[in-house]
Specification:
Length: 110
């Protein structure tokens, strides 16, 4: 038993509500991207291409981050990654997609 860590992250958690909230939080950026994809049929090509790039980037980076926590060495605070990665994903979505929409909108007005 190293630093009191004898089980993988989340194994000692008995609160189903907390596990459910973590699941919703971790999945929320992906649900938002799927909703954006459904709504993107009338968007400019640059905005849709940016959306697909963000989808790919978030998927690969999330898999790498979560995989490192799940398969890497045990650490005292593994839940930090599960809080920060979705927050960073939301920030990336909130900054990049409106910026691409603004740029594509200004290109069509010329």
């Amino acid at each position: 038993m190293l630093l009191g860590l004898d089980a993988p992250p989340g194994r000692r958690q008995s609160s189903l509500i907390l596990i459910g909230l973590f699941t919703i939080w971790v999945l929320s950026p992906f649900v938002a991207l799927v909703c954006a994809h459904v709504l993107s049929k009338r968007w400019a090509a640059l905005t849709r291409t940016t959306l697909y790039g963000v989808m790919l980037l978030l998927t690969l980076s999330s898999l790498a981050s979560y995989g490192y926590v799940a398969l890497g060495p045990l650490r005292p605070q593994p839940s930090f990654v599960f809080l920060v990665v979705p927050l960073a994903s939301w920030l990336l979505i909130a900054i990049v997609l409106p910026m691409a929409a603004f740029i594509s909108g200004s290109r069509t007005k010329r």
